[in-house]
């Protein structure tokens, strides 16, 4: 198994001797991406081509791109969750693809800073694309030094989905908006043999929901401090952990949530084995029509004294962007042609209408074939917004935090132990 590449590894690879030493160490990894030096071939490394929503649309628009640009070929390299690892390996070997389509999370947070990808701010302006991007997306993709890491593309709303038919079957006549109501609903659902809140307590979905619940008593500014430093000792963070533990031990989450994954979560909700899930828009797009027909989207219920005045959701504009590599700089005219094509309003609309994707770009298109995605887009002021911690968690702490998340979802684990696990994720990273 290939070991993760560190920030130090990227920096060391900047010198010829270090690079020469580094390449044999990673050459055993399979799927080493290989750039094509042909100026008429643009090598794009993407997750669209797997089961990711939008893959079929991407394949179709690339075919259209080829028809319009007969002298320019897009060669796609497809990876799933291991894309960042594969890209880093290819970059150390100086064989990286020209464009990378991936989210801003974990390893990728460091790419621009260490020269693995380039600042695209000037290109955004030179190519006349700034007005196409939502200001919030530009803010999230811009680092602390004012560099735009990539061209924003996919976004995500992350509300809570409630199966109103299951709630009614259990005798719950309205979507819960407070913790007490959620606990009461969970008891009634369990009495009918229905799992209350399903969650991937053993992966990133559980990590995000845990972070959202902990923020019940934190302002966004306070949450940034907590997740940047890993210090959960403040009053608001401790109260949030206490609230999470109270919900967990009251049976709000599905049985053995600490071992569930995002796939288990979506399966339980889509088959109506569970009544509630915290679901980003790509998951909402997969809810079957029957279940979607009696699903209401809203926010996570609050506790008395919360820092928010409305149930919360998460939003992100960093789901997929177009990153330019150092090799891509050598093919800048081809990269410009490709990105400008992908930014066209009609292309953007296809991802919304055909795949139910939320976009980080300006558009009036609504997901009519994906009603829950559309409902999430229209929540507006009916919900508050918690901070998505991805941009603030140090990359080395990301995976340890998921391990800590599984500990947190294990019933009976004390609030003090949950806090210790979360803080240890930063110390051991």
From TrEMBL:
Pfam assignment, any one: SBP_bac_1
Leader sequence segment: 1-35
Gene3D superfamilies documented for this protein: Periplasmic binding protein-like II
Keyword tags: Signal
Protein's UniProt name: ABC transporter substrate-binding protein
